[in-house]
Amino acid sequence: MELYASPMACSLASHITALEADLPVSIRYVDTKAKKTDDGKDYLSIAPNGYVPALRLAGGQLLNEGPSVLQYLADQKPEKKLAPPWGTIERYQLIDTLNYLSTEVHKHIFHPLFAASTTDAAKQAHMAELAAALDYIARRLGDREYLVGADFTVADAYLFVMLTWALYVGADLKRWPTLAAHHQRVMARPAVAKAFAEEMEERKRRAA
C-alpha cells in the first residue's frame, strides 16, 4: 500500500495509524500546491481531487477521505484495537466522532483559518468557533483517556492532529486540561512520535 501525505496535514493521522498497526505502507509525500508527488508524478493523476490523504491499495483501488482511510488501515490489524469491531455501538461512536472532526472542526474551522484569503475578522470568528468545538470535545472526552472506549483508536490520532493545529493557530490548551493531557498522552506513543518527527523533518527539508 502507498499512503500519499503532506507533512503535518490531516494525513498525519493516517501516517500514525499505519505505524500503530505496523502495516507495510510506503509514505509518499505530496506538494499539494504544485500537485506533485515526491518522485515527480502528477498527483492529480493519482487523486483527482488533489488532496490528502490518499491510500492506494495493492489492487490499485484508491481511498481518498480521511475517515475511510483511517478505518481501512485500522481494520487490517483488528488485534491492535485501533477501531472497535463492526456492529458494536463503539464502532458507530467512532464513525460519529470521525465525521464530527472531519466536517465541523477540520473543514469548517481550520480550512478557513489556514487560508491566506481569510480576513482577520473572519479568523477571530473561527477562533471563537474553535473554542466552542474544543469545549464540546472536552465534554465528550470527559474523564476518560481516549475518545471511544478504553483503547487508543484512530479517533485519537485524528484529534491529536486537530489539537496540534489548535496550538499552531494560538489556542491555549490550558483552558482544556483534559485535552492538553490527551495531546501529551498521545504524543508519548512511539508510533506517534515517529510519524510526527518524520513529518517535521520533511517540512524542514522543504523550507530549506
UniProtKB/TrEMBL annotation:
Residues 1-81 form the GST N-terminal domain. Keywords: Transferase. Gene3D superfamilies: 1.20.1050.10, Glutaredoxin (3.40.30.10). GO terms for molecular function: glutathione transferase activity. Its EC number is 2.5.1.18. Residues 87-208 form the GST C-terminal domain. This is Glutathione transferase GstA. It comes from Eiseniibacteriota bacterium.
